[in-house]
Specification:
alpha/beta; D-Maltodextrin-Binding Protein, domain 2; six-stranded mixed sheet; three-stranded parallel sheet; 12 helices
Length: 350
């Protein structure tokens, strides 16, 4: 009987193992559970108070871009506006290297408190996981989505000496010269590389990719003199050459003609639904409190839609399209599916 949780005493009453009647034991358990349940709203209130007071110190946003790169430029415009809104410094932390893997690992290892965030370019979620295994780049496993910072439509541009003025003319010329026309890309697996591959898949032309690990600025030197006649990239690195007339934009990969470039047709006008654009999104380490994520998302939306900030972004070729965390998650997954056939083709032809 000693091993049983209850025993019958000499008086005939039932007692538990510490000598208390079972109804008293039930009451003690009830009060413990009630106290625990009562603590839950207090925890929730604490989280809400933290979100209301957020940020209480400087916030850091990690980018894979080197200082002066297109993602870095967009990040600093957004960070400046957030600093004004919060009255706290928002710092851009540049962690270039290993194709973006350094920044991804650094951001994923940060404390999930909202004070260290990650603003990667589209390649981080679209191409990098397929090129480097075991990277912490799965959403929402490794990061929780916060919001969309902006998109950067890519321009399909050629040297003036190529002798074509429209995208249909370029496609016709490339079909006559299969494998002879080359295009500059900023490295294997980058969006400029994927854009060239997608154009080939869609049109049946054959182009030769020339990688420039030094970036678009290095590639432009060869494009402008006609050594490599084609480049596909965002407006910021191409701006000078386009304005000088050294290269010509045949089409832009946006869904509609851009207000600042009304004479440049979209690629979709020739190839329906064909889109090429880079984008940047803000994410936080997994485990970041929901109330802080919500506040970050709302404040990011306010920042990128601020008229002065919106103008700054658009003059650098970046166009804000605010998204909720749920919308951003769906968008990332859709982009991954859209580029999957292109990535598979690249993998088959290294």
């Amino acid at each position: 009987m000693k091993n049983r949780k209850r025993e019958i005493c000499t008086s005939g009453s039932v007692r538990d193992e510490d000598g208390q009647p079972p109804h008293l034991l039930g009451r003690r358990k009830f009060f413990r559970l009630a106290a625990g349940a009562a603590a839950l709203p207090a925890v929730a209130r604490t989280a809400r108070v933290q979100a209301q007071d957020f940020p209480a110190r400087p916030v850091r946003i990690i980018t894979h871009s080197a200082p002066g790169g297109s993602p870095d430029a967009l990040l600093r415009i957004v960070a400046d506006r957030l600093s004004q809104m919060w009255g706290r410094q928002v710092l851009a932390l540049n962690h270039p290297g290993a194709g973006g893997a350094v920044a991804a690992r650094t951001a994923a290892a940060a404390a999930p408190d909202g004070y260290t965030l990650y603003m990667p370019a589209s390649s981080a979620f679209v191409t990098l996981p397929g090129l480097q295994a075991n990277l912490p780049l799965e959403v929402p496993r490794d990061f929780v989505p916060v919001g969309f910072a902006g998109e950067q439509p890519f321009f399909i541009s050629v040297t003036s000496s190529l002798g074509v003025a429209t995208l249909p003319e370029f496609i016709a010329l490339a079909k006559k010269r299969p494998g002879e026309i080359s295009y500059a890309a900023t490295g294997r697996g980058t969006l400029s590389h994927l854009a060239g591959e997608a154009l080939q898949q869609r049109t049946g032309i054959k182009l030769l990719m020339v990688p420039y690990l030094g970036g678009t600025a290095q590639a432009l030197n060869d494009v402008m003199v006609g050594r490599v006649p084609m480049v596909i990239d965002g407006y910021p690195p191409l701006a000078g050459a386009l304005q000088a007339g050294a290269i010509k934009a045949l089409a832009v990969g946006s869904t509609a003609r851009l207000p600042d470039f009304p004479d440049v047709p979209t690629a979709a006008e020739t190839l329906p639904d064909f889109k090429i654009r880079g984008w940047l999104a803000l994410v936080a380490p997994v485990g970041t409190p929901e109330d802080i994520v919500r506040k970050l998302s709302e404040d990011l939306r306010a920042a990128v839609t601020d008229p002065a900030t919106k103008t700054k972004l658009e003059t650098t070729g970046n166009y804000p399209h605010p998204m909720t965390p749920a919308e951003l998650l769906a968008f990332i997954h859709a982009e991954q599916q859209m580029w999957k056939p292109v990535l598979e083709q690249i993998a088959r032809n290294p």
